[in-house]
């Protein structure tokens, strides 16, 4: 479609942000629905966050995604935060309006929508690996589903803080509970390269579900596939958190199939989702 001077501007702020795939599928969605809007990445250093948000608001930007390292810092700048943002302690979506800046979190719902493509979460026992920013949204989502969550993190003190906030149980090593859990979720950065493993992956059983938030097939995902487990890398969560941001900004049903198609050249697994997408 042709973009005129009337186009609305959305984007993502992060540092670094050039690698972000959000512009790919958000622009595909705008274009498919004939919404005259563009979605662009804005590289913003932590020390410039407040000024950058004020500048973007004044320039007429309608909404933003927020990524590393700003997800927590935006809480101090936003005029209003949703209930989920308050509970999770992080935001990934901003809406600019005459009333100011409102912060939302769609990571938790993105995780649920993605995980529920391959498994039922209700009341399950889960091993959660990592206690960083993404682990918070996942922990919140799992607790909303009534899961019993065992948390392991390299730095135990961080695990204890997260566990206290969300009612999780800290374990000293993944091996302590690997034999009993139904679902394993990795939120650590281990697997970004092919180096290193978090625990002995030969302990994973075929009846376990393995989810990795990294959007590539990590050694953990490869091990799960070899064992014949249901498994999912981070692409579906990326899609669904973005789709929920799109819904907040536009009020339109996100065109999921179009969004997925746009991500396939960037590695979105062709055999996902296991359940058909609604739109
Ligand atoms: P994100 O927002 O993506 O969660 P983050 O907040 O930087 O990123 O968190 C990174 C997570 O990966 C943390 O749980 C971190 O563990 P520590 O709290 O001990 O730092 C984990 N992590 C990073 N490198 C790791 C490694 N080599 N082994 C185990 N865990 C690692």
Describe the structure.
35% of the residues lie in helices and 19% in strands. It is of the alpha/beta class. It folds into two domains: 129 residues, Rossmann fold; 125 residues, Rossmann fold. Helix 1 links the parallel strand 1 and strand 2. Helix 1 crosses helix 10, helix 5 crosses helix 6 and helix 5 packs across helix 9.
Quick take:
The chain has helices spanning 22-33, 49-58, 74-77, 83-88, 107-115, 133-144, 156-166, 219-227, 235-250, 256-263; strands spanning 8-14, 37-43, 63-66, 80-81, 93-97, 100-104, 125-129, 148-152, 169-170, 183-186, 209-212, 230-232.
Main features:
279 residues; alpha/beta; Rossmann fold; 2 domains; 12 strands; binds 2'-monophosphoadenosine-5'-diphosphate
Oligomeric state, counting identical vs distinct chains: single chain
Question: Any idea what the radius of gyration is?
Answer: 19 Å
CATH superfamily of the largest domain: Leucine Dehydrogenase, chain A, domain 1
Tally of distinct domains:
2
Sheet with the most strands: spatial strand order = 2-1-3-5-6-4
Overall spatial form? globular
Bound molecules: 2'-monophosphoadenosine-5'-diphosphate
Helical content (DSSP H or I, runs of 4+) = 25-40%
């Amino acid at each position: 479609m042709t973009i005129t001077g009337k186009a609305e501007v959305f984007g993502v702020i992060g540092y670094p942000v050039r690698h972000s795939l959000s512009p790919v599928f958000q622009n595909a969605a705008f274009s498919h629905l004939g919404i005259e809007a563009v979605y662009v990445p804005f590289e913003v250093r932590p020390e410039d966050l407040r000024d950058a948000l004020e500048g973007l608001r004044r320039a007429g930007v309608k909404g933003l995604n927020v990524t590393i390292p700003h997800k927590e810092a935006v809480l101090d700048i936003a005029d209003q935060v949703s209930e989920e943002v308050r509970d999770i302690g992080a935001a990934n979506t901003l809406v600019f309006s005459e009333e100011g800046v409102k912060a939302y979190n769609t990571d938790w719902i993105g995780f649920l929508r993605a995980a529920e493509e391959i498994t039922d979460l209700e009341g399950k026992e889960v091993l959660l690996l990592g206690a960083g920013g993404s682990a918070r949204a996942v922990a919140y989502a799992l607790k909303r589903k009534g899961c019993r969550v065992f948390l392991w993190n390299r730095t135990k003190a961080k695990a204890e803080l997260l566990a206290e906030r969300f009612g999780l149980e800290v374990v000293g090593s993944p091996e302590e509970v690997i034999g009993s859990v139904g679902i394993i979720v990795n939120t650590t950065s281990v697997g970004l390269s092919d180096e290193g493993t978090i625990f002995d992956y030969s302990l994973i059983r075929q009846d376990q579900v393995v989810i990795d938030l990294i959007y590539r097939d990590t050694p953990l995902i490869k091990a799960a596939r070899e064992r014949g487990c249901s498994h999912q890398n981070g692409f579906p969560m990326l899609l669904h958190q973005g789709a929920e941001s799109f819904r907040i900004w536009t009020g339109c049903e996100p065109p999921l199939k179009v969004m997925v198609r746009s991500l396939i050249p960037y590695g979105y697994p062709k055999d996902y989702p296991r359940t058909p997408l609604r739109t």
